[in-house]
Amino acid sequence: MVSRRQSTLSTLCAFGCSGDASTEVRPVGRPRSRPTASLRRVNMGSMDGEIGGESDASTDRRRDVGAMSEGPLRLLYAGADLRCAPALLPPRWLAERRSTYLLHRNTERPLSVDTMVWPSLATDESMLPWVPLASVRAHAAAGAAVVVVGVVADALSVATRVAELYGIRNELVVEESWRFLGFDVADAPDGISGLCNCGYSEAEHTALAGLFGSQLNPHGLFHDAASALRFRDVADTRVSAHAPFDVYGLWRVDP
Prior knowledge:
By secondary structure, the protein is of the alpha+beta class. The chain has helices at residues 2-10, 56-64, 95-101, 133-137, 156-166, 202-212, 225-238; strands at 75-84, 144-152, 179-186, 246-253. It has one domain (2-13, 74-253).
């Protein structure tokens, strides 16, 4: 399996992103499949009163969070990927799309673990947590950003589930030279973002932008894990078809 990923990455050596803002950047090879619920408005009806209730996923996490809530943030290595360098991303998000999918509607180039939001340059189906960063880094071409993704394991159930589903087991140690991009909330390591790929009604946008807008950075990601974890619980209820969501940190690494 490792050799398959390394073979895939070797095809990227001569590939880069176009710096022409009029050119749409597309991933190499076949596009990754996505459930039909992505890139659509999620209509949750009235937002009167509190936002949602507690989903089963949120309740299950809270049952075992006590043993893992003390001490520093626990991060698990979800994999590394090659993404189009943010500076080279054309501003493809028109006002209507930003209005529908972003809490910060003035974010022209949002970043995300979701490859439908931030295009990947890899051809395989997902990041692989057993492929080391060095293997991905070695194949970075001009115009590619090397991105490390770590899942926030704030509960034993999270750590157990991501290990069973994605093979994510190793601790992530963030190096000082890495540039922190922010925290996303998604249903898989490169899956659908509940933050910037599940549309908001006007009522939802008003309520959630008021609650979380100040905690987002210029990339449209959360500054801190605590805010992202609170939003994760909202997403579990708001977009229950994709629950459970998890929190993913993104770091850019120099090639």
